[in-house]
């Protein structure tokens, strides 16, 4: 999109000309469009659980509360929807803090054998409940520099996705290692996979391959956007490979 400012000028001998200043405003318009889209997405994402909360409380107040089974079922839905709303708001606040670069990393030196097992411990119970098997392969020990809390957030997000998108009986793996260029961490699953055409977009805010499935698993659609920002704040890169029906691998790489 080009915006033009035209200024007439007169020459010494009475001739007339025009000075044209051309500005390419495409990037500004593009950013405006992204912002409008984001606000629309946020509103929609917030509205969905609120509508459901209102609907179920109204039905309870209208008499459904008298039936003990219905009451239990509806209260559980209300609880799940409020939890999702809470997660959504906390992810949104986090994302806005990270994107406005207000997050300062509290870097510390720690070995990979000290860093990873406590993080895995926080999701072990969930892995078991979902009847998935888990393999941890840390290999040789080495020292890294990370913000422990933020790094934990990255791994928990990736492991939660692996759990959410892998049917019972499947496998999840986490491995780490070093090569000449970088130290890396890999989260592997044998889940539903991601179609090739969706791969470039999964790190966008609110982008989901299957909206219904993401909602069902309690996802906010913001997890991978947050992960990517945090990995980049650690000067790292994130790479994904996937095959539909076979599984997905996320590799994080941090240069030495
Ligand atoms: P969500 O809260 O929906 O999981 P994310 O930002 O974490 O949001 O992920 C975006 C989308 O990427 C998901 O909705 C899902 O479609 C896809 N995805 C992420 N991780 C995996 C995985 N391990 N296996 C299959 N699909 C995945």
What features would you describe in this structure?
It is extended and about 90 Å long. Strands 4-6-7-9-8 form a five-stranded mixed sheet, with helices on one face. It has helices at 26-61, 68-99, 112-129, 148-164, 211-216, 223-233; strands at residues 2-10, 16-24, 107-111, 133-137, 143-147, 171-178, 182-189, 237-243, 247-255. It has 256 residues and is an alpha+beta fold. It has six helices and nine strands. 47% of the residues lie in helices and 25% in strands. The two termini are 42 Å apart. The model has no long low-confidence stretch (mean pLDDT 92). The chain binds adenosine-5'-diphosphate. Adenosine-5'-diphosphate is lined by residues 161-162, 164-165, 189, 191-194, 202, 207-210, 214, 219-225, 248. It is found in: Cell membrane. Residues 41-256 form the Histidine kinase domain. This is histidine kinase.
């Amino acid at each position: 999109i080009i915006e033009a400012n035209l200024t007439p000028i007169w020459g010494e001998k009475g001739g007339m000309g025009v000075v044209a200043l051309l500005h390419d405003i495409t990037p500004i318009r593009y950013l405006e469009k992204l912002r409008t889209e984001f606000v629309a997405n946020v509103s929609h994402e917030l509205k969905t659980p609120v509508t459901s909360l209102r609907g179920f409380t109204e039905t309870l107040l209208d008499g459904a509360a008298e039936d003990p089974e219905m009451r239990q079922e509806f209260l559980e839905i209300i609880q799940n929807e409020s939890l999702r709303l809470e997660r959504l708001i906390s992810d949104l606040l986090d994302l806005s803090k990270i994107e406005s670069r207000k997050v300062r990393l509290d870097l510390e030196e720690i070995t990979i054998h000290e860093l990873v097992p406590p993080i895995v411990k926080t999701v072990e119970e969930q892995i078991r409940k979902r009847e998935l098997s888990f393999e941890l392969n840390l290999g040789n020990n080495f020292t890294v520099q990370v913000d422990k809390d933020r790094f934990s957030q990255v791994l928990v997000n990736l492991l939660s996705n692996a759990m959410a998108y892998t049917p019972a009986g499947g496998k999840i793996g986490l491995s780490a290692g070093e090569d000449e260029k970088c130290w890396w961490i890999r989260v592997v699953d044998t889940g539903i996979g991601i179609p090739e055409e969706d791969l470039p977009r999964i790190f966008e805010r609110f982008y989901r391959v299957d909206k219904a499935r993401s909602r069902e698993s309690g996802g906010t659609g913001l997890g991978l956007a947050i992960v990517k920002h945090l990995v980049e704040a650690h000067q790292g890169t994130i790479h994904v490979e996937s095959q539909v029906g076979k599984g997905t691998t996320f590799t994080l790489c941090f240069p030495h």
